[in-house]
Amino acid sequence: MTGFEIEELRFTPDSVEETRGRLPRFSNWPVVYLIEDGHDIYVGETGSADRRMRQHLKSEQKQHLKEVRIVFDERFNGSACLDLESLLIRLLGGDGKYEVLNRNEGITNQDYFQRSEYNDTFKEIFEELRGRGYFERSIPEIENSDLFKLSPFKALNTEQGIAVLDIMEGLVEDLQHPDVRTIAAIQGDPGTGKTIVGIYLMKLMRDLAVFDPTDEVEGDSMFSDLFVEGNRGLFSDLRIGLVIPQKSLRKSISKVFKKVPALSDAQVLTPYEVAEAEEDFDVIVVDEAHRLTQRGAQAHGTLTARYGEITRRLFGEDDLSINQLDWIRKRSRHTILLLDTAQSVRPMDIEPEVFERVLAETREQKRLYPLDTQMRVKGGKEYLEFARALISDDPPWKIPDLGDYEFELFDDLGAMHQRIRERDAQFGLARLVAGYAWKWRSKGKTGLHDIELDGVALDWNRSDVDWIASKTSLEEVGSIHTVQGYDLNYAGVIIGGDLRIDPETGRLVADRKNYFDRNGKIDNRTRGQTTTDEDLLRYITNVYRVLLTRGMRGTYIYVADPSLRCRIRHLLEHDS
């Protein structure tokens, strides 16, 4: 059985005509092709390269492209070509050498006969294209990058796709009525792909605004019926924005958007920027909405002052009950929230009761979309439930079947750090993370270390933006504020003295004196709210549950409190 071939031709009518006469399969065979000019690239699949090239040559949006590469293989069928097309779009988007011109509605992830055998061929095709200069990095390097992980070129699972389609069909209807205001919510546990859905929605709205009518829309795409001329008019002048409360994740997504032509000028915003914008927005998508804040002392004094000014300007009075979600709803006709209230980690985060009311509102309007399928952690939902129960007063009595997922308790921090180094050398993206149970002494360049245990001295993350990819991150420890919203391959979680078992009651308690996130335990004096020990326990357990769900391939833990360590060890020994 012969292998694949890659045919090269110029993107001109004469070159297409010459190739049609020379290659019989050019007119009637399933193929995958790439059209590029050294900067932009478009990837497609077709049963007739001849017909498809003629269509593309008529497209104004592709007039600047110059070269075509067509991948032929006598084993190709329609399903294999769709799969290869999808793979190349995702890898090109994650590599970053080219700006990918494709819409994201054609990305598929469907199984078919002998798919595993085709996957081997696809890797060979990738390496051949890499050798010809189409990729700068290997597949593992690409898959570990933010460009890949936060890319809009993702294959959605069924529940994600249904949520996106329902929201988009609702927008098509609602945008025709200027006075209608709506709110929708996508709710899911860590790793269910909420951020990906938000990014996908942003790209899909932009694609609808600029799509080329001469381009075929995949007939079996879940979103193909959206690409009609009337919808292009609806979406073409929309003011849309993506709100990310956390600085690190906001910066990372902004970098990704700059590499995607349809999103290069898309607005990635803080809640303050939405509230202070010159014009209202048509659609605002809010990722990590549980990190929006309520009125109180903000991270910086200037933000605290701005908070009151914004509220007065928008609502005519300084109502202390008004929060950042209220701002956004006031400034946006259509608001889409992505949230998990179990990831709220500070007293200034909007109270869960507020989101309960919002979720009830979206449920009543049939605009609430739960996501259940675990997309990040290879241990699946079983691991997620196990990790949640592990940091509770109702611990599991055995470890569920986690398949190949690694979970291990370490008694020596140095040994866990060494395992993280080994996994990083093997897979990349293995990092130490911890609860905020140590002062950040190294921040002032004092020469002092932050975390000293078992003869090991470690410092908190030096960078608060894109820390995971920074050069020194393997030898540092990431906090909740640098890793929330991100994926790792392996996480080494240090559970510090902020969480311990009370020897008298045998129950978990928060140790206030060993919790050093100042903004994580302060009272909200502005609103007369006291952060009780019970509140603090909820924030700290939420922190650890987030940290315990960062690792896609495995999680290692080190526990400072002897009683909690003993409880977890007993669980592991009982299971063995």
Automatic annotation (TrEMBL):
<dbReference type="InterPro" id="IPR018647">
    <property type="entry name" value="SLFN_3-like_DNA/RNA_helicase"/>
</dbReference>
<dbReference type="Pfam" id="PF09848">
    <property type="entry name" value="SLFN-g3_helicase"/>
</dbReference>
<protein>
    <submittedName>
        <fullName>DUF2075 domain-containing protein</fullName>
    </submittedName>
</protein>
<feature type="domain" description="GIY-YIG">
    <location>
        <begin position="28"/>
        <end position="100"/>
    </location>
</feature>
<dbReference type="InterPro" id="IPR000305">
    <property type="entry name" value="GIY-YIG_endonuc"/>
</dbReference>
<dbReference type="InterPro" id="IPR027417">
    <property type="entry name" value="P-loop_NTPase"/>
</dbReference>
